[in-house]
Amino acid sequence: xxxxxxxxxxxxxxxxxxxxxxxxxxxxxxxxxxxxxxxxxxxxxxxxxxxxxxxxxxxxxxxxxxxxxxxxxxxxxxxxxxxxxxxxxxxxxxxxxxxxxxxxxxxxxxxxxxxxxxxxxxxxxxxxxxxxxxxxxxxxxxxxxxxxxxxx
Length: 152
Description:
Layout: E1 9-17, E2 22-28, E3 33-34, E4 37-39, H1 49-61, E5 66-83, E6 89-105, E7 114-121, H2 133-147
Parallel strand pairs: 1-6
Antiparallel strand pairs: 1-4, 2-3, 2-7, 5-6
């Protein structure tokens, strides 16, 4: 008998760093720390992922934010409980592609789903104090790459 296949939502996430080697993290309206980005919509099926990233960055950080998008670096699997449109709760699994990006300027204006952001030092940030689940694993992996000078 073939094992059951799992169902995942797909997302793009961005490890946005500035010239001081600080990483941008955001806090969503449910109190969870996050990275900029989010899930693909049904009409994103044929859309290049870089364009999905651009849409998500504009939605979450505002149209004035300027950055140069790099390559995918980290792949994450995250599970969380969500409140659905009918007020019921359901566990959702998300597979996320984590892109590197360099912030080059522009005012950050958070979208409706986020209440706060912070720039944290890649050198000494402790992600365990902020993140959980697959997001935590992804941020740990990214920081390890940065701290081992694997990234330029």
